[in-house]
Structures are given as structure tokens and as C-alpha cells.
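Example record used in the benchmark description.
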Amino acid sequence: MTAVDPALRAVRTTCAYCGVGCGVLATPDGRGGAAISGDPEHPANFGRLCSKGSALGETLGLESRLLHPMIRCGDAMQRVDWSDALDHVAHRFQHIVARDGPGAVAFYLSGQLLTEDYYVANKLMKGFIGSANVDTNSRLCMASSVAGHRRAFGADTVPGCYEDLDEADLLVLVGSNAAWCHPVLFQRMLANKQKRGARFVVIDPRRTDTVGDDDLFLGLKPGTDSALFNGLLVHLADNGALDPDYIERFTSGFDDTLARARRMAGSLAATALATGLTERDVAAFFQMFAKTTRVVTLYSQGVNQSAQGTDKVNAILNCHLATGRIGRLGASPFSLTGQPNAMGGREVGGLANQLAAHMGFTPPDIDRVKRFWKAPRIATHEGLKAVQMFEAIGRGEIKALWVMGTNPAVSLPNADVVREALKKLDLFVVSENVLSNDTVVAGPHVLLPAEAWGEKSGTVTNSERRISRQRTFLKAPGEAKPDWWILSEVARRLGFGAAFDFKSAADIFREHAALSAFENNGARDFDIGGLKAVSDEGFDAMAPVQWPVSRDAQPQARFFAEGGFYSNDRKARFVAPEMPALRTETTPARPLRLNTGRIRDQWHTMTRTGMSPRLGQHLPEPFIEVHPDDALKYSVADGGFARITTDYGQCTLRVVVSERQQRGMLFAPIHWSGANATGARVGSLVAPYTDPFSGQPENKATPASIAPYEYVFRGFALSRMPMELPGHAWVARVAVTGGHGYLFADNADLKGWQAWMHAAASDDLAEYNDFGGGIYRAASFRGDRIEACLFVGAAGDAGDWNVVKSLFAADALSDMQRRMLLSGKSAEGVASAGPVICACFGVGRDTICNAIAAGARSAAEIGVKLKAGTNCGSCIPELKRLIAQTPVEVDKRKLAVAN
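Model output (C-alpha cells):
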């Protein structure tokens, strides 16, 4: 816990991570850091934070920050004044637009920008430069939900709210590992299960920690979600579970959609065959849904990240529309948003197929926004979506790109091609708060230092349409500026100063709110006109509020219980999905399918979470998860390494063998990059196929092969300063207390490692080598403190990473600890805590197993003894697995006690 000056007060702000939008209390310590806790008054989380949110205080350091504007001169980036950088950006954009037209320039934004930043970027490009080439990394996250909403509802409207998770009797989770990716909301669902008896159905090709012991798990074949929900629609129709009155009064297209569903999945048997499920499980799900009035279907990336993601969304929405279970207490479809302000970006029009304020590229909307903005050359048609945008860069059609707060060289599919495309740009501008990531090192011509979380001020919108404030509690370091200020200064230099004369985030918010209400009169869902006159003081103090907030009505929690859709006839549309088919086929050369996703304690490409020592301890290395049968078939071993190859690239990853993985499928996390690992950029493996409606890429089913990759030596290094390990080693960088950690594998001669250590170490160097036995260990000291250390050995002989890491964290070693250090074992009888299982409280596997052996037979009992699992709860499934793995030892202990 960070020590806090009692004179410093807590600031209410909002978490920097996912779309749950948790309230945070940040209390500055007066030295550039802050103590972090959950805000008990925020309606999104009521004080609870996940492991990532709890560790935000560990990510506020300035060691990796970009602090000054820089322009490329030859092969080097040189510091310049803000005025020079802004002049250069404006002049080059102006020149390229004059030469090649507005379609030759683009912005690529981020769901981590504030709404005010998004608004200014969108207004500048679409209203004044005249191009709709504005897209965002949210395209990779929730674009299929947006497209599905718009097809069904006539607008991108989220019909439900978080309260529905508390009141539902059936919670259906589709393609969502909410236990890891949205743990605060998942704990609300579990509380409902415990208090009210709500039942869970989890639909996912992979058995994740979201699946509880008594839940119905449907491990369907990848890409068959729409067949399952089409089968459900048929079952509802054939068993009297429809709401004919709702269908008649508020919808259209039902008969055609039902007919299509019958052709695709007209019976239990046909649905089971299409999805790979058993008829018994399909029937159980259909009956539960049909008989339960209060049902919420929650879906996330497993649905969205697909070349048929929009159809999947509409197949889900069809079932809720057909039963009238939408916009009612405990009954709605619900998209779990991935980023902290993907929703705010959707509101301002931060996607290439939106104009602004939930308006599209129709002639009336174009005219309306043009008049409001007084825009001289407004865009008149949709721009290029993310994947297509970078393909156009590769073809030389887009000449200038401004990337803000995201890392496309890692996160986009076919990422190696993306990285090469960036080199072709005439102008490549990056606004960032980190000095190095894969995109920053991909050759930008201009780097602009942006404010980070804790320094910037504005608003974000969460998954339930709730607008919350992010507030400043730290002084901006160096010359970092808000993104909206940077954009406004460029706009002024382009000659548009009068339209971008913003003095504060509050100024921008007021204009954003006014546009939402302009000529609205209830015709559009997004309306926050009731806030367009908020004062600066009112903006500073603004409490979380759910839209719509029109001038003449109270905020509403839900939409569509009594119709009122946003199509021309005010009716919802049933949409008949196409026959489900993945865009790619497996072959003898690529016999498996690669699924990608997130892990519990990391976020995106780890530019923030990678700074936290506690978040790096649970799963510190990039890995590939494989079913035991496939591991045997392809000769890969748990704990070993494997080479994963697709038609687009290859990676080398640690192997995790797990029965929770489906046969024929692989799973790899997306977080590692060239900045923090060797050969682990999983985006480079992913096929660039996209959904025809949403433009969202299919990240979940790329054909792949797996083969063993042998390393003779394993090891680790720790250092107070960053180190550059030899290029022949496979390396994963890990944040550790007191410095920098590196886990590696290698096939080079040990004497080379000795020479490397001699070059890196101080004069006070202790060594142990047994080259014949394949072991080399060394540590350099400064006084009684470890300055750097290196442990190399054959698999299992490198030493105990957790023991040495704990000694490295110490300010001083005792004589015994120093003598024992190179043994790689614990000294003075202090046992290693093992790999961290509970990141919130730093509780290790060995500590937990000891508590289990001492008689703790439930996660609750472990929580009482160790606190593990008592904060965000995302480690509870792993606690239960550890309990299940140790019954014999416990029984023996109990027998001994009894005797």
C-alpha cells in the first residue's frame, strides 16, 4: 500500500481498463504515485475492483513515458518544441490532402481515449478535412454488436443495464470469459446465483473459468453460435414460448426469419449436428430459456470477433425480440464491452461507418451535422474500417496516418503485414504516453506526448450507457498534453481555429451534448441534451449518469419494453442469419484452429499492466493451450515449447496442456509483443478476414499447425536496470519488485552467457558454474543488495524463480541469504510462496496448497485464512481446482489427527 499524506484527498475517477466502468478512489501520495481503492458509491462496482484495477497504483511511474514532442531526423528521433511538431503535422496533412485528396489521410483511435478527445478527432476529420477515414481499435472489440444493434433496433442502443444481472433468473454467457475479463460484473452474477438461485448457461468452445461446477456448459464447435440460436428460435415457436403480441405490435420480418431458422436448425437433432453438441444438452438449454421469463444473454468477443459476428448478434437478438424479453427488469440481451470508452467512441461517431452522435451517412444526417458544426467539407460516405484502412496503407492509397493511444502493429490481424505497411506512409504520427511499443518503433515521423490516466480529465461511457468522469489527480509530466488539445492545435493551424476554440474538456462535452439533442425530438436514442448547459463546476462535480438525459425527461435504465425502436417505422427488425460457415478451412498442413483472447491479469498489449509486478506473476510467459490428445498427437509437452505456424506468421510459445481446451483447437493470449517477448506477437498469426457488415476480424478460428521446439537451457535474469539479453535467446520480460525480470530459454553455449554476465555485471560478482552439468549462475551486488543476477540450467535446474525474485526485492540480504543465493533455493527455512494465484493480495500457489493441506476445504475457508479470492474473485475457480487436486493428502492429515 502506498503511504499517503493525510493532507491529500481522494479523487473520484473511473478505471482505465474494461467497459465495466468501475469507480475508483485515487489518493495521491505527493510523490507522483497514488493509493487506489474502489469507489463504494459508484453504481458500476459499489467499491469492488478487479486485480488490474487494484494494481493501477503500480502503473503510474514515469520510467517508460514519452515526455516531449519528437520528430524523425534521419534514423533518429529528436526532441522539438510543441510549436514545431504541431506546425510540421499540420503542414504535412495539408500538403497530402491538397495533393491526393482527403481520402489519402486517416486517424486510427483508441477505446481508451476520453469522449472529448474522440469528439474533437471525429469532428476534425469528418467535418473539416472531409474524410470518414476515422476508425478505432474498438473495431476489433465490439463492432459486430454495433452492427447487430443497428440492423435490429435502427440504432446502436444497449437495451438493458447492470441491474438486470442482479434480477435475472437465467444468465446465458456466449463467447464470454466474464470471470476473467469482466470479473466485477461476474461477481454480481454469482451473488445473484447464491442469493436468488439464478442459473448459468455458458456457451463457448473453450471451458473457461466462467463455467461453474453446476452450470450447463455448451462447448459448441467454433462459428456455430447462430445455428444454436436459430434452433432456439424454432424451439420457442414450436413450444408456445413466443410473445405474439410483442411480435405483432413492435417488430417486422419474423416469418421470414423463422423460415430461414427452420432450414438451418429445424429440430433438436439438426441443431446438435450443426453445433457438435449433444441433443440432451441442446434440449436442456432450450427448455431453460423457454421457461424462464427473466433471462439475460451476455455476449462478448467470442461472438463479436468473427467473420459472421453480426449474424451471431442478430441470432441472439431475434430470440429476445420473439419473446419480448428486452428492456425489462432482468430480461435483455447485453453486450459486454471490452474497453473503458468504446461506448463513448460510438456516441461521438468514432467509427468509420458512423457520422456523429448516433447519426449515419444519410442525406438528412449529413445535412444536420454539417449545419451544427458549420463544417466546410463534411464527409458524405463511410470511410475505411480498421483492417481495410491498413490494407489501403499497404497499397499506398492512404499516405498519412495519425495513431492515438493504441498499438496496431501488435493488435491487428496479420500484424507483420501491418508493420510493413506503416513504413510506406509519407506521414506517420503517433500520439502516445509510452516511449516504446511495437507501433512507436515501427518508424513514425512524429511522436506527440499525450497525457495518461490520472493526468487527463473528461468522460467515459461504460457498457450500460453510464457516463462517468475521469478526473485529474496527478500533474502531467514533462510536456504531455491532452489529446483534444493536440488535435485542436493542429485544427487551428489548418485554418479551422474558430470551430476548435476549446478551452477545456467541459467546453467539448457541452458541444457534444448539444449535438446529441440537435433536431432530435426523440428520433434518436442518444440524447444528453439535458447536460449541454452544464457549468464548469457542474462538470467537475458530475456524478455518474445513464443516458438518455434529455432536457424534458428523466434518465432511463432500459429501452424497448414497449417498442419505440429507431427504424423509420419505429419497429424492430428480425434479421435472418446466413448459414454459419467459417471463412477458412483446416488442411493437412494446418490441421488445428487458433483461438485468441485475454488472460486474467493483463490488458491489451501490456503497456500499462506490464508495469505491475503483481499482475505479471500469475501467467508470466506467453503460452499456447492445447488439449492432451492433440499434445500427444503432435508431440508437444506441458511446460515445453512449441512453434505455432499459420499462413500469416509463426510464434514460439510455452505449452500448457489442458483438458479444458477443445480437441482440434489451440488458444493463445494476445498480450505479448515485440516490446516484451520474443516471437510471441499472436496478432501476426491471425487471418485478416472480416465480417461483411461490421468489418470486425475473425480472431478466433485461424487454421494453424503446432510442432515441438526444443530448448536445451532455461533460465532467468533480474536487474535493477533494463537489460538487453542476447538475440539468440527466447525471452519474456516480466515486471518485478525493485527492477526488471526476464524469463528465457536458449540453445547457445553457457560460456557465452558467462561472458554476457561479465559485461553486464559490477565488480562485486559471485559465480557458480558447472558447464559439464549445464549450469551457470551469477549475481552481482552493490553493498548488501543484489544488483543483477543470472541463472541458467537445463530444464528444472535453473533455480527457483520465485525464491530468487523475493531475495532480489529485498533492500539487503543477510549473510546466510547471500551464501545461499546461487543455490537458487530458499534460505533460513523460508519456503517459496510459489507462482501467484491471487493477484489482488499476492497469494502464491504453495501458500494456498499449504492452507488446503491444513484443512481449508473451500474457497471461502481459504479466503478467511489468506484473503485470496475475497476481492475480485477471479481466482476462485483456480482455488477450487487446487482443492480438488489435493484430497488424498488432506484425508491422510485428517486421519493422522483422528489417530
